[in-house]
Amino acid sequence: MATLLLGVFLLFALINLGYYLAFFSFAGARDKENAAPAFPVSVIVCAKNEAENLNNFLPSILEQDYPDYEIILINDASVDNSLEVMEKYQALDGRIKIVDVENNEAFWANKKYALTLGIKKAKHDHLIFTDADCSPQSKNWLRRMAEKFSAENSIILGYGGYFRNKGSLLNKLIRFETLLTAIQYFAYARLGRPYMGVGRNLAYTSTQFYQQKGFANHLHLRSGDDDLFVNEAATANNTAICFHRESFTRSVPKQSFKKWFEQKRRHASIAKHYKSSDKLLLGLFYSSRLLFWLLFIILMAFQIYPQITLGAIGVLLVTESIVYFKAARKLEELDVVWLFPFLEVFLIFSQLAIFIANIFSKPTHWK
């Protein structure tokens, strides 16, 4: 029995090692600067009850150093004064167009419906998306994202991080989870298997959108306007990644564990609609991590081949630390790396709790 436990533990260790070696395809990559794009772009921001965030972050979009762009502001049936804030900025800047969406009984509280109306309003083919609570981290955000478009590349995956709160452990957990997610979707895209993107920093062409028939195949799902669209439309030939430091956006993270937990429940409920091969890859990664740590605890508690057990976890942790350090340095998240063993274990068991919670009840969705 002891030998069997050790064998299973080593199997999961090898599976995990394989994943992190694959993740190195992003961690060891360099983001090359391309020629400056000459085409105009449409920036699309969907807001629902985001008056304060629009006041705080819209100026950072208006200040972009890009020669030709418009901003489509979508007021998704807000009950605060989001529309008034939009109209205030529109009066100051003629590049702003407003789409005022009223609740539709057939598409009640459906962000995809609102986004579709915004995309139809855009006059340019190249679309760049972000959220109302997001702030570009440089005046070259649009330039860096747009330069990744080409005759072949119609989908661009960017990095949308969160603002740092030095004294908050929850903040580090949220940012570590965001870092790990980014490592995965960047690495898989580089390996020719793009499977998701984040609406905080995402770009695609309207041509691609209409060829895909928009969100038609998952319009009945309230979430997934970003990752489900990418999962359905992205291929090895039409997708590029952008991780230049000037291309990042950051947004306000959840301030309580309960709100973050509900947010991750929503994300997990949408992931079950990914392609089967993607669900298999992601499911194997998280299940193998969970079983690896559980078996490690059992083996050490009963002192079963402790030298081999410690040696295996040592090799894996060294490999992980290299991947996390290199990726975090690229994405400017280095402060979370030093706690990665603790954060990773906490995240793994949080994922298990999310899976169990979603079995018994449905998560809430778009505001």
Automatic annotation (TrEMBL):
Keywords: Glycosyltransferase, Membrane, Transferase, Transmembrane, Transmembrane helix
Transmembrane residue ranges: 6-27, 280-302, 308-325, 337-360
GO MF annotation, one: glycosyltransferase activity
Cross-referenced Gene3D superfamilies: Spore Coat Polysaccharide Biosynthesis Protein SpsA, Chain A
Domain Glycosyltransferase 2-like: 42-176
InterPro entries hit by this protein: Glyco_trans_2-like, Nucleotide-diphossugar_trans
Enzyme Commission number: 2.4.-.-
Pfam annotation, one family: Glycos_transf_2
Top-rank lineage group of the source organism: Bacteria
Family per similarity comment: Belongs to the glycosyltransferase 2 family.
Protein name as annotated: Glycosyltransferase
Lineage, uppermost ranks: Bacteria, Pseudomonadati, Bacteroidota, Flavobacteriia, Flavobacteriales
